[in-house]
Specification:
Endonuclease III, domain 1; 10 helices; 56% helix; single chain
Length: 192
């Protein structure tokens, strides 16, 4: 039996799949980076498993996370999303997703890609941590504080330091798998 991080219980297929195939894998694709920002924004105040279980519904509702399309959403589209029972129906979070798509496009215009912008916070390389247990893992760091401040200055919403650190973990900017987790070494091998 594989040893996993404690937050990924064996009896939850959503968590296991996400942990074993995505969490901590370095992401350099703007569309996927945007998807994580959208999902992490909706997760604020909720559990991540709630978002994982609704992820496919979000993907359909938000045009496959196409940030160009989302940046053009109008009040009619926002109202339609508010009526979609398959996603989190929070007007503030929906409107934030739209404004974040617009801010995302401005970052791409300035830096050439969101990837080149966001990865500069870790000098383009995954930070390899060495946590013995999940309770050792921080919820934010000085880097996520800096990232949050910069994103907010660019008009992003729902990008507090804790959300930024979750983004760093999800997209492989840090390897926060615990030392006893089978993915810890697998992720490190990807970085060679």
């Amino acid at each position: 039996m594989k040893q996993r991080c404690a937050w990924a219980p064996e009896d939850d297929a959503f968590y296991v799949k996400y942990h074993d195939t995505e969490w901590g894998v370095p992401v350099h694709d703007d569309k996927l980076l945007f998807e994580f920002f959208i999902l992490e924004g909706f997760q604020a105040g909720l559990s991540w498993i709630t978002i994982l279980r609704k992820r496919e519904n979000f993907k359909i509702a938000f045009d496959d996370f196409d940030f160009l399309k989302i940046s053009r959403y109008d009040e009619k589209k926002i109202t339609a999303l508010m009526e979609n029972r398959k996603i989190i129906r929070n007007r503030v979070k929906i409107k934030a997703a739209v404004s974040n798509a617009r801010a995302f496009l401005k970052v791409i215009e300035q830096f050439g890609s969101f990837d080149s912008y966001i990865w500069r916070f870790v000098d383009g390389k995954t930070i390899i941590n060495k946590w013995e247990k999940s309770s050792d893992v921080p919820v934010n760091t000085a880097i996520s504080d800096k990232m949050s401040k910069d994103l907010k200055s660019r008009g992003f919403k729902f990008v507090g330091s804790t959300i930024c650190y979750a983004h760093m973990q999800a997209t492989g900017m840090v390897n926060d798998h615990t030392l006893n987790c089978f993915r810890y070494d697998e992720i490190n091998k990807m970085l060679l």
